[in-house]
Amino acid sequence: MRIGIAFDLKSDQTARAGGPDDLLEEYDSEETVEALAAALRERGHAPLLLGGGRGFVERVLANPPDLVFTIAEGSGSRSREAHVPAVCEMLRIPCTHSDPLTLAVTLDKAAAKKLVAADGVATPRFTVVEDEDSAARLEFELPAIVKPNQEGSSMGVRLTSRVRTLEELRRETLRVVRDYGEPALVEEYVSGTEMTIGILGTGKDARVIGAMEIAPRIAKPEEFVYSLEVKRDWERQVEYHVPPRVPPATLRAAEHCALAAYRALGCRDIARVDVRLDARGTPKFLEANPLPGMNPRTGDLCILSTRSGLGYVDLVDRIVVSALSRQARRT
């Protein structure tokens, strides 16, 4: 098949002058695109590099592929991850990953948490605040985590994001609102084991492919924040355990929580869902990433998949097969 790859390279973006140093964190590298193209070739496909933005629209109109494999993050709004699949929907070109609605709603962390909570999935208490003054009116006790409400790739999540006092809460809220130009999500801090769970498939056919514990090497486990600083220095800062070092019943509960959230949000083909255990060992949904990083060396999904016995080429192939199966059921 002729499979077009939609992507946005970090090297093609321009950061806002004076902005934080992670504004381009979610964009991909040439290494990731090359690895994805190589995996598709290994399965006998002909990859086409379509890029993102206006260039993607022009290329896909001029030379429509049989399928678009999207890792494009988009730009400019909280619905930016939905841009490519929306174009594909309009042009009736099959596309991997979730549809525009799911991609838009999952990037808005509060909206995603409201949806999964309405479906009975446990999530830490939270509120959305517009400024540092309103941050003081919480309905739950500190400590809390403060993060941008509409970003991915740990953008805006720093070692200082775990706040214990009202002064720290105001400071971090002001930083997020000022630096990212959007509301802050203030979420009850959950102190137990952190896990990320990979899921493949759609609807009733969705299945967990692996779970990975993210354990701190340096920070105290009960104070750990999987922050930008940690992710950039992950080989020194954290240990990844596949499967997680939790009792079998707890792991099953965590996987059930992740799968329930995946289905509640309408995820398709692939996603990575983050959960954390509370003080009682109950899994709580943190967030879902339906466009998980596909770098075979550093992407959490790729690491947990490989360590669970599903290699990178097979992972890419199964995403394609899932998308094609969905399309076949519609025709």
Strand order of the largest sheet: 10-9-8-11-12
Number of strands: 12
Mean pLDDT: 95
Helix-and-strand structural type: alpha+beta
Low-confidence regions: none
Give the name of the CATH superfamily of the largest domain. ATP-grasp fold, B domain
What does this molecule look like?
- The protein starts with a strand and ends with a helix.
- It has three domains: 2-97, 3-Layer(aba) Sandwich (Rossmann fold); 106-121 and 191-330, D-amino Acid Aminotransferase, Chain A, domain 1; 126-188, Dna Ligase, domain 1, CATH 3.30.1490.
- By secondary structure, the chain is an alpha+beta fold.
- The strands form three sheets. A five-stranded antiparallel sheet has the order 10-9-8-11-12. Strands 4-7-5-6 form a four-stranded antiparallel sheet, covered by helices on one side. The chain has a three-stranded parallel sheet with strand order 2-1-3, with helices on both faces.
- The protein contains eleven helices and twelve strands.
